[in-house]
Structures are given as structure tokens and as C-alpha cells.
Amino acid sequence: MRPFPRLVATLLLAGCAAGVGAQGQVADGLKPRAVAAPHYGDTLYQFYQGRHFEALTGLMVSQHFGRVAPHDDEAEVLRGGMLLSYGLHDEASAVFARLIERQAPPSVRDRAWYFLARIRHQRGLNDQAEAALALILAPLHAALEEERRLLQAQLLLQREDYAGAAALLEPLKGSAGAGLYARFNLGVALVKSGDAEGGQALLDEVGQAPGADEEMRGLRDRANVALGFTALQDKKPREARAALQRVRLNAAQSNKALLGYGWAAAELNDPRLALVPWTELAQRPLSDAAVLEAQIAVPYALAEIGAFGQALDKYGQAVDAFAREREALAQTIAAVRGGALVRALMAGGQAGESESGLAAFAGVERLPELPHSGHLAPLLAGHAFQESYKNLRDLQFLQRNLGRWQGNLVSFADMLEARGRAYAERLPRVRAAAGAMDLPALVLRQAALQQDLDRALEHGHAAAFADARELALQQRIDSARAALRRAGDDPEAGAAAERLRRITGALAWQQARELPARSWQARKGLRESERTLAAAQARDAALLQAQRDEPARQARFAARIAALTAALVGLQPRIAALDAEVGRQMQEAVVAELEAQQQRLDVYAAQARLAMAQIHDRAQLARRSDGTFAK
């Protein structure tokens, strides 16, 4: 099977972000789209920066407060994908089920079930993986459909439904993308189902295919090894040699290939030829079972060609090597039981881990520095151990994160206390400033001004809108009238009165002309003052409400901080207990594997001693036949 994508959530999000055509198929290219919700944009930024833990927690907070609309479905897909990336397949399954209930696009739904099946298969939950695949209602887009078929075929192979797997893989064997994997798995399925000839033909085709990269070359080596050992089982040593000699000498499958090549030569009654690959294999590290077998295969071949002395020496060297290796395994077991393995793995994992979040697909990339750590390479490369390592690393990350959160809560408590002190200090000043402004009197003044304006407009009193210059002129006119009344019948008073009448008329005419503009300005000013008064009243009401609510609000914050602190304090022992349990399970799995290697060493040592005894018996019988021991 192909390696699992590093960012499941990215592909899920791509399925949601891409345009959907009339037939429901996702468009080939992703088109840039504007993000309408800033909080969702922040989540995407954190996600694409590789800070997945911050992206996940921030997204869940934003969803809680309803801040991601109109991207609700996309946000839920992204959340489900990130949960899935961390192996939380139950939680991701619940997310995808809710998406289906909300009538999410079929392409998004089917992608979600596919990736859920991949994670479940990765975790060894094959039945649940098949259940997820069964929920895919339409072919997936492009290469994902081939991946889905390969996964389904792998599940069928694992439950030994070889015929079903073969039927599923047959249409894929000519595919440009998944064809090589399909032909390899199809060949295995055909061999297992009884069609040895058809299966071997496919494996031979894969075994001779050009390898563009290391992945393809590794698959080609696996095909040749499978083909070679199948031929050995069918008593076809020449065909086995032809397949096994195509395996690269320094590849991961080379040990098995060298061992099988030697046995193929032995089947052809050519022990001298068998010595060549077995001698090369015997010089390699003893942590591989094929190398252990080569330790006794070499003296076996020497005995077959009659070199009994050399065979005895090699058997003796093998027994000594097995004893040393057993002691080395015992030292490694003691170190593992002492916790050195877990400490070394965690030290190596943290060095390359982002402090801002979990690395969902990080694995054991190098061997820990332990006594004879080469024994651990096959086990550490295994899928089950890698998953346990991820769980342990995630638990330790969460433990550190809880510690940081606990420190943050202490800071929040200090901030809340400072806020309470500031509130107590500022409240008297705010109350004093609010009391200095008589809002009810201002409201009455506003109403009186409005009435005056309405009356002036109703009766056309243009003089009510006079400016300062006009008011001063009106006062001079009034003074002049009083002076004329005091003058009585003075002849000059008549002419002055006429001039005063004209001036009064001119002033009235000017005021009447300015009345529309001035009345509009007056109405505008009153409206603005009304709005200002309304805002002042709203602020006053908000201030009064805040004075009533703020103490209770601060009390709620304090209670929330206390509850979260208690929750964090309660979680830390649980996580520590889980951490210890997962570490213990890892140690037990490693110890069990190393003890199994010790048992294999004991079996090989016993076989070597038995072979040595047989050689001695043959030598004694030969000497007796010569009369050497005759009485």
C-alpha cells in the first residue's frame, strides 16, 4: 500500500474548498476564495504554518462562539481532518456523521469516510475501516479512487478473502498511478487463492519493472523476494534464483534474498554456490533472523562438501556468537525495563518537535542510544510500535501543554485582580463625573427649545432667528423709537421716524429672506443635540448597568479560572498515569520481542550443537570402520 498522506486535513479541506461541478465532481484545480470570517482565517493561517494544535483549539473556540460563518461546513471538515490526523477517529467519525446530517456536499462526505478508513486501518481497526469504506456512496475524485480500491483490497487480503481482493485489483493493474501496487497485491492474492501461475507472472512483471524512486525499487525487491520464496516452496530452485538475484544487495530485502538464494543453490545440490550468499549474509548484524540462520547455514554447506573441520569451527563460532548475542539481548532487556528506551525516544522526539503543536505523523526516525540498539530496529519500524510511540509523545506534549495552561491561568487570575483594583479606584471618579452632568435638565431644555422653534415657525417669527449683529441693530432701533417718543412734536422727529421705519423694514425683509436657511440650521442643531443627549443617556445607562454587572462579571471570571485550574490539576495525574501505562506497554512489547529473539537464538544454538554432535558421530563411525577403535 502507498504511504499515508502527511496532512489528511489538508486534502479534506481541499475537497471542501474546490469548486463542485454539475455532476458533483470536485474541480481539478483549487480556486482562490475569500475568507469572510476573520477567526476562520486565523485558523487557516495557524494550520498552514504547521501549528496544528493551536489551529484545532482556536477553531473549536471560534465554533463555540459562532465566529466561523459562513464557513461552518469547511470549518467542521477541517476540524474533523485534524482530529483524524491525531488518530482520534471516534471523534472524527462523529464530526463526519454530523456533516452528513447537515447535508454536506457528497464529495466532502465521501473523502471524509475514506480518510477515516485509512486512519482506522493504520490503527489496526480493520473491521471499522471496512465499515467506513462502505459508507462511500460514489467514486472518489481522480487518484483517491485508486487509493480507496487499494485500501479495500488490502483489507480483503488481511482477512484472507483473496478472491475478493483479486477481483477488486484486476481493473487497477493497468493504472499509471496505482498500477504497480495493484499488480503486486494482485499477484499475492492470486498466489494465495490458488492461481500460482497467474500470481507469479504478475510478481515477475513487478520484479522487473523500472524503479523511478526508492519506493518503487523497494516494492520491486519485495516482489522478487515473494516470487523467489514461492518458487522455493514449489520446488523450483532455478526460478527462485532468477528472481532473488534481482534484489539489490544493500536493500531492506537483501538479507531474505541472500538466504533464499543460498537455499535455492542447496536445492540444486550445489553447496559451494550456496556458500557465497550465506557467507556474505553471516557477516551482517545478528539482529536479523536471516543472519542468524546464515550462521548455521554456512557450516551446513561446509559439511555438505566434506569440510568437516571447518564446519565444526563455524558451528562453534556460531554457538559463541549466539551466546554473545543472547547476553547483548539481556543487557538491552535490562535497559528497556529500566526505562532507558522511553527516555531515549522522548528525548529524540522532543528535539524535532514543534513547541507550538503536535506533529501528527512524526515517527521514530533514528535508533535510540541504548546498548545494542540494533536489535530494536525491526520492532521500532513496526506499525504497532510507531502508533504507541505517537500516543506516548502526544501524552507528554499534552502534559507540558497543561503545565503552560496552568501558568496562563495564574496570569489570568493576576490580571483579574488588577482589573478589580482598577475598577474600585476609578468607580468614584466616574460616578462624580456622571453626577456633574444634569441630563434630566438638559432633556427639558431640549424640549423647550423644540417648542420655541415650532412656535416661531408656526407664526413666521423671522426675528426669532436673528444673529448677534441683527440683535444689536434691533436694540438701536428700539432705542431710537424711545427717543422719538420723548421728542414729541419736534419738526425733525418726523423725518427721523420715516428713516427709522425704512431701516426697520429693511431689517425685517433681510430676516424674512434668511428664515428658510436659518430655520433649517436650527432644526439641524436641535437634531444633533438630541442625538448627543441620547448617546449621553445611553452611556449613562450603560455605566449604571456596568456598575451593577461588573462585580458579578468579575466573580464569574474568578469562578471560571478556579474551575479550569481545578480541571487542569485533575487532568495532570490522569495524563501522567496514561503516560506511564503507555510507556509500560511499549516496554513490555519490546521486551517480549527481544525475549523471542533470545528464544530463536537458543533454537539456533541447539541446532548448531546437534549438527556438531552429528559431525562427531560421523567422524567416529568413519574411524571405527577403519579399525582404529577395534579391540
Q: Any idea what the CATH architecture of the domain at 1-141 is? A: Alpha Horseshoe
- Rg (CA only): 45 Å
CATH structural class of the domain at 1-141 = Mainly Alpha
Shape: elongated
Residue runs with pLDDT of under 50 for 5 or more positions? 1-7, 15-30, 350-361
Mind summarizing the main beta sheet?
none
| Class from helix and strand fractions | mainly alpha
**Order of H and E elements:** HHHHHHHHHHHHHHHHHHHHHHH
Task: Explain what this protein looks like in three dimensions.
With 631 residues, this protein is mostly helical. It has a domain at 1-141: Serine Threonine Protein Phosphatase 5, Tetratricopeptide repeat, CATH 1.25.40. It is built from 23 helices and no strands. The chain has helices spanning 8-17, 38-48, 52-64, 72-85, 89-101, 106-122, 126-134, 143-158, 162-169, 179-193, 196-207, 214-233, 237-244, 254-267, 271-282, 289-304, 308-337, 340-351, 377-380, 383-436, 439-459, 468-487, 491-625. The longest helix is centred in the C-terminal third of the chain and has 135 residues, at 491-625. It is elongated and about 185 Å long. The relative contact order is 0.06. The model is unreliable at 1-7, 15-30 and 350-361 (pLDDT under 50).
